[in-house]
Amino acid sequence: MNASFRPPAVPLVTHDPYFSLWSFADRLTDDVSRHWTGAAQPMAGLLRVGEKTWRFCGPNRVGAACDLLPQTSLEVLPTRTICQFASEEVRLTLTFLTPALPEELDWLGRPVTYLVFDVSVPGATPQDVTLYWDVGGEIAVNLPEDCVTWGRLRTKNLEVLSMSSQEQRMLGRAGDNLRIEWGHAYLAIGRGEGSTFLGDRCEARDAFVAEGRLPVADSFSQPMKAEKPAMAAVMPLGLVGGAPVRRHLLLAYDDILSVEYLHRRLRPWWRRNGMEAAELLETTHAAFPQIFQRCEHYDAQLMTRFRERGGDDYARLCALSFRQCLAAHKLAADFDGSPVYLSKENFSNGCVATVDVTYPSSPFFLALNPALLKAQLDPVLAYASSSRWKFPFAPHDLGTYPLANGQAYGGGEQTEKDQMPVEECGNLLILVSAVALREGRPEYALKWAPLLKRWAGYLEEKGMDPENQLCTDDFAGHLAHNTNLSLKAIIALGAYAKITNLAGDAAEGRRLRGVAEAMAARWQTMADDGDHYRLAFDKPGTWSQKYNLVWDRLLGLNLFPAEVARKELAYYRTRQNIHGLPLDNRKDYTKLDWIFWTASLAETDEEFQALTAPAHRWVTEGVSRVPLTDWYETTGDGRHLYFQARSVVGGIFMRLLTPVIHRS
């Protein structure tokens, strides 16, 4: 195992908020695999060498006892998780390959992971080797006591097993701590490559340990509580020697309908042209050699890019965040065929398309495919343009996942209670401007011109010294006169001024630029606290991370002199704790995404790494074993504070944007 990097949880099969399996332990044999929420969704792997059976995935308490095949290493790459196992008698490399290629929506939208097994036997005498894998019924239900049914599908080249919730509550419930309750899970192997079984998982495992085979016939005792049955496959590898023998399985989930957007029930992206599950599995299976090689190349290129921008620790953290960021979204097709990419606010409140979740995750998409950011912004902007949204400021969300039928948070569509006016107006103005500047043309911003003008007017009136209104960082309570929120408003106006110029309205662009410059000058005076800048204009002796300032340089606005960032960064170095820089002076907790935004203000690699090194240490040393959290304690054991598996870890990619986002 890599002692220098121990992920708090390991991505295994990661596609969307419902189809997302992780290991919460150091080794695959230490615990069952789990949904990102922590609910057990077990997979088990066994390997029979001669007359001896080894266990390499899943704990020993399920099924017949057998020898443990030690896990010797773990590597998490952008599209792959690679686990290696070894004893004196056998070697195994297990690769979980999810071809989540952000620039290729057809691959990103396929809910299929390859499980790739490379087996070799050291020594002079080849051995007869057989591989076993199963997936429990929990993958298809919300709770283990819910009932599942099962069946088979035979295609030209595949033997396919399916497991499904008995009730099929299609888009039936919205909420946070929920698993899927509809659609079909699939486990597929090549025809002629082995045998399969549907039924009691302990019966299947016991038969394999005892005799190296599966039960003769599937169980007919369905429906059955999901905690009992499994889809199981056995693949004989024949005589295996020192040269590795490779086999692969497909694990897939067809949700049929993915999300509801303004009461339109949308299909998953891969189904938009009429593709069905059989074709999905067949084409994905046939593409295996090419896509495996392609993902190897993609991972190598991306890891080199990460290392060049932030060093080895930064590269490993980016790789760990990569599939998590993507898997907190669902890619669906709207009725006109356009992509809709909706986030879920995991273990926060379950909101869908939350604007102040899109904002921190945006560096990932700006760096790797801005089209995916537009697919997140467009649904919110279309909703805000409708007659349903009556406020002069931007909305917070579109509902509760998977039902994106209108804002759920705070006062919703009815009142201004717990709305986030400056926050969300600033977020959307910055993001739309960033996309337009990234593309080097104003068309995307012009598409939403009436909204942007309205929100810019709101920020011009309210943004300099915000009232006591909710913002994304109000964990320690609401705060008036928030200097970082003011920064966001100023930069948003500066970005909008630049877009206005790009669109050809030079007079209005100059006016807006003048407004932003005057506000920036006032900010420096009002927020000044000697060797740093305050948390709130009216609170001397306070401080906070000014992460919003990063856009001033990235968008080429230059509203603030470089000395502002330099002074803040020097002060932050005096305030770091063992696990990172706190969010502000009120508490010792922090936000992982904001640390990397703040550190990206650094002008040198040394300064960037000095501010991020404690966070890298926390990833390995923190006590909480959950998919990467973005809200955690910077002191003591680094315990996480509820959030986990959220898309905002895409904010770690902010460092990649420095040389590329501004092209004009």
Strand fraction: 15-25%
Q: Main sheet: which strands, in order across? A: 7-8-9-10-18-14-13-12-16
Radius of gyration: 26 Å
Average pLDDT: 95
Distance between termini?
46 Å
Tell me what the structure shows.
With 664 residues, this protein is an alpha+beta fold. The protein has two domains: 10-286, Beta-galactosidase, Chain A, domain 5; 297-657, Glycosyltransferase (Alpha/alpha barrel), CATH 1.50.10. 33% of the residues lie in helices and 22% in strands. The chain has 17 helices and 25 strands. The strands form five sheets. The protein has a nine-stranded antiparallel sheet with strand order 7-8-9-10-18-14-13-12-16. It has a six-stranded mixed sheet with strand order 6-5-4-11-17-15. A hairpin with a 2-residue loop joins strand 19 and strand 20 (264-268). Helix 8 runs parallel beside helix 11 (483-502). The longest helix has 23 residues, at 288-310. It is globular, with a radius of gyration of 26 Å. The two termini are 46 Å apart.
Keywords:
six-stranded mixed sheet; 17 helices; Glycosyltransferase; alpha+beta; 664 residues; 22% strand; Beta-galactosidase, Chain A, domain 5
Summed up, what is this model?
This protein is α+β, with helices and mostly antiparallel strands. The chain contains 17 helices and 25 strands.
